[in-house]
Each structure stands twice: as structure tokens, then as C-alpha cells.
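Here is an idea for our session: we take a single protein and study its fold together. Start from the sequence, derive the C-alpha cells from it, and show both lines together. Once you have written the record down, we can walk along the chain together:
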Amino acid sequence: KGIFLPYCPGCGREELLQAVGIVGAIIMPHNIFLHSSLVKTRAIDRSKKEEVKEANMYFLTESCLALFVSFLINLFVMAVFGEAFYHQRNEDVHNKCVNSSVSRYASIFPINNETVSVDIYQGGVILGCYFGAAALYIWAVGILAAGQSSTMTGTYAGQFVMEGFLQLRWSRFTRVLFTRSLAILPTLFVAAFRDVSQLTGMNDLLNVLQSILLPFAVLPVLTFTSLRPL
């Protein structure tokens, strides 16, 4: 339960928001365009069914391996966070942090009996409190790598969309500057005038929006790839 069978007793609006956001965070709409375009990178004679069949087999194998590794990574993350967060109170986490090597962060958790509620920042702190300072830095590097990966895939997807649908031929510098500005400027604005909690809320909202946009990305791709004249 909870991994293969959806199960969440007593869940409300916030939990539902996170569940929908997880779908958008994993199956991002722009990656559908990116992965659809990557099949063009393999030089094959598409008039020969044998070569197309062989290429599909390699793409299937590659996708299965990548998704399996991704599943294992996400499973490990969920297991570690479940061990650290499940049925934990703010007071428990505070006391744990006080007696750890990252005790300077203990003040971010109030001393009360409420169930601990974490965001990206507090999640890293709790990992540091329970598993040592090294876990805190590993979490930070992981967040940085995830952000860079998401930015790169967004840039590549934008390149394929602009070159394929819109027939735009921008230089690489102009394309990267435009797409990264659209992604970074709103975040910098929120970071300058708000705090980490607002950044986390904005991230959750963006993931939900990505989940809602999935049909609008999937249907055009399926339609265009099914039309023989195209």
C-alpha cells in the first residue's frame, strides 16, 4: 500500500495537491516533446520495417532501463524520508536536531506536539539531523542536480518545439537566455520578496499545473505522429 495501491487514510486537500503534483513532477509535459524528438536522432531507413523494428527495440530497452533506475532512486528516497518523517512530531525532530552535528538548525522546528510538516529546505535539515551533516550536503547537491537536469530538458524541449512547430531558428545563446530567463526570473522575484515556504508552495503549484497540462501535450503528439501525411 502506498506504492502500487493508492492509500492515504485521513488525507485532505494538501495531500491531494501533493499527489497530483507528483504526477506532474515525474511526467513533465515538455519531456513528451523531448522524448518524441529524440527518436529522430537514430539514423535509420524508415522505409524498411526491419530497421524500424530494431530501433524501437533499442529505444524500448533504453527507456525501460532508465525508468527502472529512476524507480529505484525514488523508492530509496521515499524509504529514507518515510523512516525520518513518519509519525514524527516537531518536538521529536527539534530534540533530535539539538543532539546532532547540525544543531544550529534546530530552531526552525517549534517545540510542540504537532506532526512535523516539511518542505524542500526543512526536509534537508531533517536528513542532516537524523543521518549526519553529510546527508544535508548530499541533499543539497541532489536538489541542485535536479534543478539543472530540469532546466536542460526544458531548454532542449523548447528547441525542438521552436524548430519543429514554429520554424524558428534562434542561436543557441539566444534560446538558452530566453528560456532560462522565463524560468529563473519569477523564482528570483519570489526569493527576493518572500521566504523559502513561498518557494516551496510555488514549486508545488507548478507541479500541479504540469499535471493538468499533460493531456494538452500528449494528445497533439499522438495526433501528429499518427497522421501519415506528416
